[in-house]
């Protein structure tokens, strides 16, 4: 006989339900497989939005994103169609609209006992995902509520089918049964969509559970994401206190959750989540103070989430889960991403991340130095950004850098160009010029076509310093993302590091430079950024600034002509106004020990130009020694667009392609020469003059420059 259980859902819905709730209410879920019943409740949000059926068609494609071209190869026509995600540029991901306060408010409704077993729910705020999105299963920490992803529900819900595990407060399901319960769901998802990965996001205790499930399902395509996993609980800073907590009298137990709340997370980081970082210090600290004050009266719900009997049970569960998972690490074949906090006062998370990285076969680590144990509920981490920045988001068995690319959101734009590269933007005050089709030079990017495919071909400044200003300028002025073809080593760097600028490059469209990726980008009418000089140009030697190192191979011209792309040559200057190159490759390899280390590492890197000869084939990677200067300014000049539409001779005649290639190279050199000459006329080339100007105008973009 089927058992029927009821549980309160706010704002959630069960896995087997035929409806998606848009209001608070009770869902009576028949675990025997019958239909679920939805009962309205006045405890909800008060909205009267209609229910959305589960079988409703969602995420249908819209125009403007998919590439469809017809090419002729060997006299035969073939159609190439590449589907990209139908997400608009700078979309609203909702990140920062929910906070720890909302977690506590929602948890208050979900902790009420209902006698039911563990179950899945789908957050309403996640909304319907895009068609073809993979499933993401969230496994909660010690609280068991399942709201640990609250800050990320809306963001993740765009590209994942999000489901969260809820373990009722008084549930006593053994760990082995939980492993089988989650494993059964994983296998069902894999059976229904065998070509899509299944994502497991485990928080603390949920991390141990995720690893155990992965060990039991080696044949399922899993991507496991662990946030401060509790596999290190035996080495916890609080481990000596566990016996004391279990023996504590009932009358004193209500103080434990309050004490744990300050140990588990960084209160300031929790309160900073929805604070406007663009405000002046006074109002910003005012918002922070209000958030901290609002948290204090809500902490009482923690004693309801973890009553004494539950605390004793959860401590035993933590230990058994860690032992179970650790004994099976050798059998895990899934992709694993470990997120570790630098200020975790409950677990030695950084050390544990290093240990897991050395034991697991396919593991990447990202650390967050300023965050506490409740990493996913704190400011400073957008989980979708981390997944994308570590190249873990895919919708099929293999990652496709074009089909699986998610455009950056508005919140990612704000973080990247204010917090990550804001210092460089401020110091260099980028200014851009472009050329209209009639040859007129104008300030701004009006001369660069807004419709693709467009191929931007130019000079690579030292260390690629020009990249952030270029990408930001196109996004701000044209709402266009320029996708840069990058050296493959960017995607195979150290597996253990802080989430940094290099990861944000991937979030903003960096893609390995391969013929197939180049082909796909042009086929989808993208704006593509190509540096023919590559690493040799970006890591040039002393005295080689503004010198081009281009190979004598016009292949990019032919590829552009194949798709009728518009080629825009451009030059950039300013590296010599930012830093002095003190130690180049030749200097560094002469240093004992360091030189041997650089040579050894370069022997292992993947060579993009292995079949070439001469200086252009020199791809040695290194970090040059730089001496900062009083900052000058970055200048960009985009030349007159070159149309290739209808120029089939570029495909047939190598001489025509070589001629256009030489012309583009000369245009880049002319652009650099133009900027070097004209910047001498800029009254605001120096940072001191710009700083005085900004006393009266707040925007970096408003600072004047020379007249073109």
UniProtKB/TrEMBL annotation:
It comes from the Eukaryota. GO terms for biological process: triglyceride biosynthetic process. GO terms for cellular component: membrane. GO terms for molecular function: diacylglycerol O-acyltransferase activity. Its EC number is 2.3.1.20. The keyword rRNA processing does not apply. Residues 181-378 form the Serine aminopeptidase S33 domain. InterPro entries: AB_hydrolase_fold, DAGAT, Hydrolase_4. SUPFAM superfamilies: alpha/beta-Hydrolases. Keywords: Acyltransferase, Transferase. Gene3D superfamilies: alpha/beta hydrolase. Belongs to the diacylglycerol acyltransferase family. This is Diacylglycerol O-acyltransferase. It comes from Opuntia streptacantha (Prickly pear cactus).
């Amino acid at each position: 006989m089927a058992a029927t259980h009821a549980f309160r859902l706010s704002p959630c819905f069960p896995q087997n339900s035929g409806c998606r709730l848009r209001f608070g209410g009770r869902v009576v879920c028949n675990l025997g497989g019958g239909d679920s019943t939805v009962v309205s409740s006045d405890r909800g949000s008060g909205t009267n939005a209609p229910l959305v059926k589960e079988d409703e068609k969602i995420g249908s494609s819209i125009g403007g994103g998919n590439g469809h071209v017809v090419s002729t190869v060997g006299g035969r026509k073939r159609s190439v169609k590449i589907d990209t995600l139908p997400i608009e540029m700078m979309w609203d991901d909702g990140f920062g609209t929910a906070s720890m306060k909302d977690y506590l408010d929602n948890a208050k409704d979900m902790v009420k006992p209902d006698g039911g077993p563990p179950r899945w729910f789908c957050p309403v705020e996640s909304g319907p995902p895009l068609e073809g999105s993979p499933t993401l299963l969230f496994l909660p920490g010690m609280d068991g509520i399942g709201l640990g992803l609250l800050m990320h529900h809306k963001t993740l819900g765009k590209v994942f089918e999000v489901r969260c595990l809820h373990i009722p407060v008084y549930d006593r399901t053994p760990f082995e049964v939980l492993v089988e319960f989650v494993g059964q769901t994983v296998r069902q998802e894999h059976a229904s969509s065998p070509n899509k990965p299944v994502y497991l996001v485990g928080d603390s205790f949920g991390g141990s559970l995720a690893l155990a499930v992965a060990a039991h399902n080696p044949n399922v395509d899993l991507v496991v994401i662990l946030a401060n996993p509790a596999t290190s609980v035996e080495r916890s800073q609080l481990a000596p206190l566990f016996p004391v907590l279990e023996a504590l009298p009932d009358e004193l137990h209500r103080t434990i959750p309050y004490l744990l709340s300050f140990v588990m997370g960084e209160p300031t980081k929790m309160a900073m989540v929805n604070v406007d970082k663009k405000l002046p210090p006074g109002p910003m600290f005012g918002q922070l103070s209000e958030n901290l004050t609002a948290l204090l009266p809500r902490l009482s719900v923690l004693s309801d989430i973890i009553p004494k009997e539950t605390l004793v049970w959860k401590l035993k569960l933590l230990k058994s889960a860690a032992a179970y998972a650790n004994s099976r690490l050798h059998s895990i074949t899934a992709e694993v991403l470990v997120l570790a906090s630098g200020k975790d006062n409950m677990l030695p998370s950084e050390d544990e991340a290093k240990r897991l990285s050395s034991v697991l076969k396919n593991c990447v680590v990202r650390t967050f130095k300023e965050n506490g144990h409740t990493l996913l509920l704190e400011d400073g981490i957008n989980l979708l950004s981390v997944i994308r920045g570590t190249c873990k988001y895919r919708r099929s068995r293999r990652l496709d850098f074009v089909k699986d690319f998610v455009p950056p959101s508005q919140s990612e734009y704000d973080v990247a160009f204010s917090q990550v590269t804001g210092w460089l933007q401020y110091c260099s005050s980028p200014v851009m010029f472009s050329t209209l089709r009639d040859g007129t030079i104008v300030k701004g990017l009006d001369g660069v076509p807004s419709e693709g495919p467009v191929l931007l071909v130019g000079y690579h400044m030292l260390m690629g310093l020009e990249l952030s200003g270029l990408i930001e300028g196109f996004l701000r002025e044209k709402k266009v993302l320029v996708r840069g073809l990058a050296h493959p080593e960017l995607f195979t760097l150290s597996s253990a590091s802080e989430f940094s600028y290099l990861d944000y490059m991937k979030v903003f469209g960096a893609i390995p430079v391969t013929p197939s990726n180049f082909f796909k980008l042009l086929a989808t009418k993208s704006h593509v950024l190509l540096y023919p000089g590559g690493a040799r140009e970006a890591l040039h030697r002393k005295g080689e600034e503004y010198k081009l190192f281009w190979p004598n191979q016009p292949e990019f011209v032919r590829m552009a002509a194949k798709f009728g792309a518009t080629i825009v040559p451009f030059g950039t200057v300013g590296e010599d106004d930012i830093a002095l190159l003190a130690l180049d490759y030749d200097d560094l390899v002469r240093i004992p020990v360091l030189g041997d280390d650089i040579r050894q590492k370069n022997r292992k890197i993947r060579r993009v130009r292995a079949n070439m000869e001469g200086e252009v084939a020199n791809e040695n990677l290194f970090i040059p020694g730089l001496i900062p200067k009083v900052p000058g300014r970055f200048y960009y000049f985009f030349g007159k667009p070159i149309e290739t539409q209808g120029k089939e001779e570029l495909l047939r005649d190598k001489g025509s392609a070589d001629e256009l290639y030489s012309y583009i190279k000369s245009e880049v050199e002319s652009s650099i020469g133009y900027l070097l000459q004209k910047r001498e006329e800029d009254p605001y080339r120096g940072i001191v003059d710009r700083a005085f100007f900004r006393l009266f105008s707040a925007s970096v973009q408003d600072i004047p420059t020379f007249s073109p």
